[in-house]
Amino acid sequence: MKMFDPNEEEIAERIGNSGEEERDLGERDNLSLGTYRICFYNLDNLFSRLVDLNVRVNSVDWFEYKEHLPEDTLEDLDKSRIVESLDRLLGSLDHVKLQATRSRLSLTVDSLRAEASVSYVDHMALLSCLLIIGSGLMQVYFVRKLFETPNVRGTTNKA
Questions:
Q1: pLDDT in tens, 59-100
Q2: Other C-beta atoms within 10 Å of 11: how many?
Q3: Does the record's keyword annotation contain Transmembrane helix (predicted)?
Q4: Among 20, 68, 83, 93, which one has the highest count of C-beta atoms within 10 angstroms of its own C-beta?
């Protein structure tokens, strides 16, 4: 994961699983106004980026903004909608994680199948060579047996 500020400068980078790590980009980082980019990289896929989020940071006085809103909109602005939206986002990210795991396992299965195929081909080639050598030895044995002296008789034809 990489984060870029509005000036396209990298402000954070993390490689590997995020786990439970949290990063508060509030007062400590003294964020400037503008559009921030968060890029999540999917290393298990042939494509490089998995998700590219753009986050806009605005400085708005909430109380002043709230005064200009209609009353029915104010009733809709409760935390349950935000939590529901975040739950849906979490479900989508879990689905992406599941798909990444599935593709990683599929890649592992494919590599194991390729290794098994290579060993199968090697064994079949060795068996074919042994069969050819064995059939040649049998031919030599039977041709010698055919021309042993008790089996060969002289002929009376004098030409």
A1: 667 677 777 777 766 666 655 566 677 788 888 888 889 998
A2: 15
A3: yes
A4: 93
Long-range pairs for 58-62: beta carbons < 8 A, 24 or more residues apart: 58/33, 59/33
Please say whether the beta carbons of 55 and 61 come within 8 A: no
